[in-house]
Design brief:
The structure is a single chain. This protein has a four-stranded mixed β-sheet with strand order 12-11-9-13. With about 325 residues, it is of the alpha+beta class. It is about 15% helix and about 15% strand. Helix 1 (about 5-15) crosses helix 2 (about 70-80).
Length: about 325
């Protein structure tokens, strides 16, 4: 599919032309009417996704695709914003956010976490085997200082922490979606299946989203044509007209993440804003926000997080090479 607005954004990014927030019109957003659905599920093995509860939402707008490098570039050019990954770092604070066993870098320049496949199969509980702290990695340099955005203007922006996503959304006159809003559109208002495209499991040979094919994390068959991120709108939209709700990049939501959110906020609920604080029993001292949708690293044998009810928490001050966002906005329909 071809989007002239995305082409214009790419040109503006490449020539460094200034753009203002009003250029991000709601023509790239979808109006979602008010509705009620059952949020979550109560299947064994997914305790943080249940029990399912009844949720009613007011109408809202949501971006049809994830925020791109071109769009984020407009924001940075207009505001001179510096992302968390580009700022000087405090190692004593940072090491609490990294996978256990991550070695201290040789220097403490600004940087971010980058996925690098190991050369052979590894134990899947050792995240440090594929996540590496890379000095100089940021939204402009997704794999590190030697990389750039050539050919990736229409890819989703990555290495953005929660506060970076919030800053962009405020500049654009928008906000981040709540977790309930995100699941509502992913599940087609509760009328969809286990995945944004329906109930059929993801295929290794006929990809319907940018996810991992092969053996995670060392062998990617690349059946979908992409090792990392893919341009937004590369796959068919769901029935609401929204793209990339499964795979490509994880998407920040407004809510604090708690593993027990559904147990302490039982339905029926109206426009839930999430819990007042964060709690993850595996990392109880780290404040986390909800991320949804999975990424290009998700695989059915390791992380089937592209399911509509799947939810996870990510440290709010952490950017990664597979985390981005889309925006929402309040009504009315126009």
């Amino acid at each position: 599919m071809f989007d002239m607005r995305l082409l214009a954004n790419a040109v503006l990014l490449l020539i460094g032309c200034a753009a203002t927030a009003p250029s991000l019109s709601r023509s790239a957003m979808m109006w979602i009417p008010p509705g009620t659905f059952m949020m979550g599920q109560s299947a064994p093995g997914s305790p943080n996704e249940g029990p399912a509860r009844r949720v009613t939402l007011s109408g809202f707008w949501i971006d049809i695709h994830e925020v791109t490098n071109a769009e984020f570039g407009h924001f940075v050019h207009e505001t001179s914003y510096i992302t968390v990954a580009e700022r000087p770092i405090d190692w004593d604070a940072l090491k609490l956010q990294l996978p256990r066993g991550t070695p201290k870098p040789a220097d403490l320049r600004a940087g971010s976490l980058v996925f690098r496949p190991p050369p052979a199969p590894v134990e899947l509980d050792d995240h440090s085997a594929w996540w590496h702290w890379v000095a100089g990695a940021d939204w402009r340099h997704p794999e590190g200082p030697a990389s750039n955005l050539d050919g990736r203007a229409n890819h989703p922006v990555v290495h953005v922490a929660f506060e970076d996503a919030k800053a962009f959304s405020r500049w654009a006159g928008r906000r981040l979606p709540t977790e309930a809003e995100w699941e509502y559109v992913s599940s087609l208002g509760g009328d969809g299946g286990a995945f944004p495209w329906g109930d059929t499991p993801a295929s290794e040979t006929k990809p319907v989203a940018n996810i991992w094919q092969g053996r995670f994390p060392d062998r990617n068959l690349c059946s979908d044509g992409y090792i990392g991120t893919s341009p937004v709108m590369s796959y068919p939209p769901n029935r609401l007209g929204l793209f990339d709700l499964a795979g490509n990049v994880w998407e920040w939501c407004e809510d604090w993440y708690r593993a027990d959110t559904y147990s302490i906020q039982v339905g029926p609920l109206v426009d839930p804003a999430g819990p007042p604080n964060s709690w993850d029993p595996q990392e109880p001292t780290i404040p986390k926000r909800v991320v949804r949708g999975g990424s290009f690293l998700c695989h059915k044998d390791y992380c089937e997080a592209y399911r509509t009810t799947a939810r996870r928490g990510t440290a709010a001050d952490t950017g990664l090479s597979h985390t981005g966002f889309r925006c929402a906005a309040d009504g009315p329909k126009r």
